[in-house]
DNA sequence: GAGGTAACTTACTTGAAGTAAGGTGAACCA
DNA sequence: TGGTTCACCTTACTTCAAGTAAGTTACCTC
């Protein structure tokens, strides 16, 4: 037992480690039951370090959420690049989303199953910002291809998509007999016809999967920090 | 200042008061920041009473959620009775839902904005049970009128509806320029065509609002307690 | 009005969030 | 090679809220 004599680790690396451990423990015990002492211990350091780097327990959670959010945004954005049209773009995005939530199911529930708001306003804001980001992406997608629709309709439609995604991902993650593609297909079948007709009430066959528009290139807006202070 | 000398109050009445006060304070401060001492004080009693009646802070939250859940179920169920067909039934249910969330917006966010899971497994289960209840109601509605669809599709569709409702209600509650009816209309327009075609892929005009079926009478399953012990 | 019980209280323990103040090792300069 | 420095890290606290043990008091019943 040659007790490693506590190596000193540069800030960035230590921070990443702390985030990883915290994500794990939050997912394991829930935010309230998780203790900063335990997180510190499993990192092999002492508690004040956590406070030094993240300010508070909530701050630590916010950092976890933000990191996950960045990952998700990058993943889905990448998946959508080069889609053949709006339908294809939406489907690709959905598949990427469901794959992501499946791969990180434990820590995903940290956000989805609502571990967040408990922590306080900052964590709530962070989660809400993530949803809003998705809403904006959806709106951009819809309006790029279907410019006739009024803003209110776009927004409502985007909210519907985001809500449906969120719930369906939990359902999907809980079943082994459904693939990400199938989940996306389910959602597309329910949503697409309605979305199309609602957003663009022109002749019914104008848009039909493959479209005259060029390939879809999403807006990359990265993470828009709500309040970093 | 004739300090009312602390009237003694029967259990049922006191419990109701405690729930009301707790709902208020939870909504006001968030679950974590709310203190049992403050709740007790605002009730005009001392803390151990809360523990006597609800067992724990989480227990108190669970009681609040369950009460709200019962209200919601009763409200929507009542609204749907006597609908002219599946579309009408769904629309009525949605309108009732949005009205409900609007009327109780503060405490609703207690559930929706995720104040729940923070508390622990019991509160999470309670919220999830509420959603599942909605899912079951939707499934019953769909399958009663559209019996051709496989169970998996019904379930996926119901999840989509519940998720969309949840998100759209938050959106709707945050705006003064949208009525409950408009929110329901938005949702119906996005969902209904897809739902209809997905659930019953027969001739496209078989179902069209008014239907040959008799008026819709929902299953009243009340509150199905997850684990009361 | 005696007695029992449901409603209620005071006064504590426990445990985790957050903090003050100081130790230590590695990089860098002479 | 030795000293200086600063980022990394610790010990040892304070504070505050959840939860509890044990006892007290008003109301109801006979």
UniProtKB/TrEMBL annotation, chains A, B:
Classification via Pfam families: TetR_C_46 (PF21943), TetR_N (PF00440)
Region (Disordered): 203-229
Gene Ontology BP term (one): negative regulation of DNA-templated transcription
Coiled coil: none
Span of domain HTH tetR-type: 12-72
Molecular function, one GO term: DNA-binding transcription factor activity
InterPro entries linked: DesT_TetR_C, DNA-bd_HTH_TetR-type_CS, Homeodomain-like_sf, HTH-type_TetR-like_transc_reg, HTH_TetR, Tet_transcr_reg_TetR-rel_C_sf
UniProt superkingdom: Bacteria
DNA-binding region ranges: 35-54
Alphabetized UniProt keyword annotations: DNA-binding, Transcription, Transcription regulation
PANTHER family the UniProt entry points to: HTH-TYPE TRANSCRIPTIONAL REGULATOR RUTR, POSSIBLE TRANSCRIPTIONAL REGULATORY PROTEIN (PROBABLY TETR-FAMILY)
Official protein name in the record: AcrR family transcriptional regulator
Species name: Actinokineospora auranticolor
Lineage: Bacteria, Bacillati, Actinomycetota, Actinomycetes, Pseudonocardiales
């Amino acid at each position: 037992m040659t007790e490693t004599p506590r190596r000193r680790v540069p800030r960035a690396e230590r921070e990443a480690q702390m985030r990883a451990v915290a994500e794990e423990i939050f997912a394991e015990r829930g935010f309230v039951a998780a203790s900063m002492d335990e997180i510190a211990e499993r990192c092999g350091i002492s508690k004040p370090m956590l406070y030094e780097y993240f300010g508070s327990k909530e701050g630590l959670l916010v950092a976890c959420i933000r990191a996950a959010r960045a990952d998700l945004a990058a993943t889905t954005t990448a998946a959508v690049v080069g889609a053949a049209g709006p339908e294809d773009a939406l489907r690709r995005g959905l598949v990427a989303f469901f794959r992501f939530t499946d791969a990180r199911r434990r820590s995903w529930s940290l956000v989805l199953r609502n571990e967040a708001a408990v922590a306080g306003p900052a964590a709530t804001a962070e989660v809400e910002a993530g949803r809003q980001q998705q809403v904006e992406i959806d709106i951009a997608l819809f309006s790029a291809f279907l410019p006739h629709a009024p803003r209110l309709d776009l927004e409502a439609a985007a909210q519907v998509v985001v809500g449906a995604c969120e719930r369906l991902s939990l359902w999907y993650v809980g079943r082994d007999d459904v693939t990400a593609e199938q989940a996306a297909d389910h959602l597309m079948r329910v949503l697409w016809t309605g979305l199309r007709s609602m957003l663009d009430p022109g002749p019914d066959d104008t848009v039909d999967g493959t479209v005259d528009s060029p390939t879809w290139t999403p807006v990359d807006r990265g993470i828009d920090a709500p309040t970093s202070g």
